Amino acid sequence: MSLFSRKTDSSIHTRCTEDKLTEMRLKYAPFYDVFQKQEGSHVWLGKKELVLLSSNDYLGLTEHPKVLEEGQKALRQWGSSSTGARVANGGRQYHLQLEEKLADFLGKEAVHVHSTGYLSCMSAIQPFAQRGDLILVDRNVHSSLWSGIKNTPARVEKFSHNKPSSLARALEYEKPEIPKMLIFEGVYSMEGHIAPVPDFLEAAKGQNVFTVMDDAHGFGVLGNQGRGTADHFGVTAQLDLICGSLSKALASVGGFVAGDRCLIEYLRTHSKQTLFSAAISPVQAACAEAALEVIQTEPEHLEKLWQNTRAYRKILEDFNLDTWESETPAIPIVLGDKAKVYHFRKALIKKGVFTTMSIAPAVPPGKDLIRSSISARHTAEDLDIIADAFAYAVKKVL
Ligand SMILES: Cc1ncc(COP(=O)(O)O)c(C=O)c1O
Fold first, then answer.
1. How far apart are the C-alpha atoms of 48 and 381, rounded to whole Å?
2. CATH class held by domain 65-297
3. How is 87-103 classified by DSSP, letter by letter?
4. Is 245 touching ligand 1 by the criterion CB < 6 Å?
5. How far is the CA of 14 from the centre of ligand 1 (A)?
6. Model confidence over 177-228: pLDDT tens digits?
7. What is the mean pLDDT of the chain?
8. In 272-303, which positions are buried (b, 16+ CB within 10 angstroms) versus exposed (e)?
9. Does ligand 1 come within 6 angstroms of the Cβ of 144?
10. What is the CATH code for 24-53+299-397?
């Protein structure tokens, strides 16, 4: 019996009404919780106060006074919206300002910013890969990169997650004259893994490879002052494009693509996501610019993030939980069974900690997991609440 009563003679409408995944989602409601209030690292689900352990506010800057002040100023100065694409109604000074500062910080010649990271990641691929090209992609990359890939006519070869030897095998019989694009993430948010970037670059050397790295979760977290995964390995110059999101460490909403000026100008000519979608809003650009300033002038946020990451990882290790060898503040707890994941998450909520879950097919079979990420904003008291909640959930569910 469908949960929805409205009937039509449209097959597509009926397909939606009878969709099993939607039915399961609504029945068990593991997603789309709505918080009534948020203060720092705490949220309120109805009247229940919870420590939020699944936000990407890695540096805890979403309520930083400078970020709020610049956002408010931009709202007053430029209004609420960019109201269109930059080719249609012009760019604004705040776009260029943010792009110049991001390029400077990342050590690239130029940047283009978009209204979401999803668009930026698509933009870093769609206009660049053409018919006859070969795309080599880590099989665990984010949906935004797959959306970019699927919008190209290029041939696609997946290689095993984070395995340079698998990339080398995929390249073995390919002719050097075939243009190739290598796509991977700097930090994988589901697994918490850092990509072995120097080994990927070594495997791709001399093989006519153009490299695209999505650093949504490495930016602000790794490298000098948070310059990201490329800086962490000292390979910024060897990556053709770095794309990412402003919605994580940069406490805003939006995305960027960074690279040589010729590549960014080419993107502005050919990327559909850039030509036909409204530019980032004044408030979001100003908040990101302010956060970028904060991360360069207040190193304590990055230090606190890593201090909290170590303390949180220790809690999980003490309970012998499988964290999939995460090396970053994004830490999965692999339970390997969807019923366990569901009940474990419920138990954490009962004891005041909010996380999300990921189950197959979103993760490989046997890797059903609780997604969690720690922030610089978490306090010592939060960590105590987290430890107590995990003690309860482990006892109750495992
Ligand atoms: C790895 C990765 N790339 C890209 C994105 C898209 O970024 P945004 O949320 O800004 O659209 C995300 C967001 O979850 C992400 O995790």
1. 17
2. alpha beta
3. HHH---HHHHHHHHHHH
4. yes
5. 31
6. 999 999 999 999 999 999 999 999 999 999 999 999 999 999 999 999 999 9
7. 96
8. ebbbebebbbbbbbbbbbbbbebbeeeeebbe
9. yes
10. 3.90.1150.10
The amino acid sitting at 70 is E
What amino acid is encoded at 188 in this protein? Y
Q: Is the CB of 60 under 6 A from ligand 1?
A: no
Question: Residue 13: its pLDDT value, please?
Answer: 92
Residue identifier of the C-alpha nearest atom 15 of ligand 1: 216
Whether 333 lines ligand 1, by a CB cut-off of 6 Å, is no
118 Cα–ligand 1 center, Å:
6
Long-range contacts of 303-307 (CB under 8 A, 24+ apart): 304/60, 304/376, 305/58, 305/59, 305/60, 305/221, 305/329, 305/374, 305/375, 305/376
Contact between 78 and 72 (Cβ < 8 Å): no
pLDDT above 70 covers a percentage of the chain that reads: 99
- Could you tell which of 114, 115, 245, 252 is best to mutate to test the pocket of ligand 1, judged by most ligand atoms within 8 Å of the CB? 245
Question: CB–CB of 197/223 below 8 Å?
Answer: no
Angle between helix 300-318 and helix 282-297 axes, rounded to 10 deg: 80
* 138 in contact with ligand 1, CB cutoff 6 A: no
Q: Is the CB of 218 under 6 A from ligand 1?
A: no
- pLDDT level of residue 3 (50, 70, 90 thresholds): low
Per-domain boundaries in the chain? 24-53+299-397, 65-297
pLDDT digits (tens, 9 = 90+) for 341-366: 999 999 999 999 999 999 988 888 89
142 CB less than 6 Å from ligand 1?
A: yes
* Nearest atom in ligand 1 to 253's CA: 10
Stated pTM of the model: 0.96
**pLDDT score of 1 more than 60:** no
